[in-house]
Amino acid sequence: MSAPRILPAGPLRITPLPAPPRGTWRVPGSKSITNRALLLAALADGESRLENVLQSDDTRHMREGLEALGVEVVELDATTWIVRGGRARLRPPARTLFVGNSGTTVRFLTALAALVPGEVTLAGDAHMAKRPIQDLVDALRALGVEVDCPTGCPPLTVRGGSLPGGRITMRGDRSSQYLSAMLMAGGLAAAPLEIVIDGTLVSRPYVGITERMVADFGGRIEAGNGRFVVTPTGGYRARTYVIEPDASAASYPFALAAASGGEILVPDLGPDALQGDVAFADVLARAGAHVERTPAGTRVAGRRLRGVDEDMHHISDTVMTLAAIAPLADGPTMIRNVANIRIKETDRLAATVAELRRLGQFVEHGDDWLRIEPRPIVPAVVRCYSDHRMAMSFAILGAVREGVAIEDPACVAKTYPGFWDDLGALYDAQGAPRDW
Predict the structure, then answer these.
(1) Per the residue annotation, which of 57, 277, 317, 387 is the catalytic one?
(2) If DSSP codes are grouped into helix, strand and coil, which group holds residue 245?
(3) Nearest by Cα to 426 from 27, 25, 26
(4) pTM of the full predicted structure?
(5) Is 317 a catalytic residue?
(6) What is the tens place of the pLDDT at every residue in 353-375?
(7) Tens-place pLDDT, residues 185-223
(8) 122, 155 in Cβ contact below 8 A?
(9) What is the rounded CA–CA span in Å between residue 139 and residue 152?
(10) Where do the domains of the chain lie, and which CATH numbers do they carry?
């Protein structure tokens, strides 16, 4: 896993770029797709080749967890991995699986653990111990899987061996990852699995990624009318799979272009992208930016930034990106229907409100919304709450306006270890000084 070049021991001061940036920003492979591909390849009989893999804390935890369960992963180079998988390889681990603060890892491996013949315990860091997983626990128990989870959050223990089929109901309003975990593990269930969604499904595009990737690996899911049916097909098929660039990570160069009046191309993230977060570029278009999508990638060119009123329920990982550049808009920015961001790496709604206020902004908020009225930036150190997206989002504001420092720059390693290198390349291209 690559790391930022040199980071200071204390807060990192971000100085504004002297001119609007113009050029190409190549973001790494998608975390969401990498961890799904790892899980599906682990369950597929034979040898899969994964290309453009993201190397990050979250994908490392997934890889190490799968290896502890008997799957073999060989690193040909930094972004190309060979995965030798199959259900017959699965075995109880010799130790507790440590998942750090990786939501996809703990949720996906919890469902997979139902297929492991024996006991699997998963635990994370102090932040993970506060992240709910009860909905997934309840779904597994409803199918007859034995799960111990005293607090409703990790740690938890699964005693598996078989995932029975059947019909269950799952809440849709908390995290789509619970559903994705069941859909992927369900491909090896003993009988068809029907999942009925209670309420509105949050982050629906991420479930779409799961459906598409399950099909790519030879699985079968039928969806409609608030229900999903997984029909076991005898196992997944090993294959070569190319992971597309991370659309959530692309929100940072897109936001920088829009907020600065610059122009940035993110290659290989075009009209056919799987990830719903590419729609963040459409939000920026409504805020005044020019957006062009071609097979070569997506290009955003900044114009005068205006406030917008956006329902970001389905692209909630980009809420902080929009909020961080809202102080630069001509008018207020309203972000709605995002209660689900309260159970991410931190309570992202509360954290975003607190740090915008620390920077002198006028912010109102409720349980699932926030409204930002731009004010002059008050110089401050932005707290990160061990949340990678806090660091990266507010770094973009600092690249455009004076007065922003990032408390914990190293936390970007969770999903984007090379972020500071990639942002720094824009400074280097302009011969501009920087503190990293």
Answers:
(1) 317
(2) strand
(3) 25
(4) 0.89
(5) yes
(6) 999 999 999 999 999 999 999 99
(7) 999 999 999 999 999 888 889 999 999 999 999 999 999
(8) yes
(9) 13
(10) 12-29+248-429 (3.65.10.10), 31-231 (3.65.10.10)
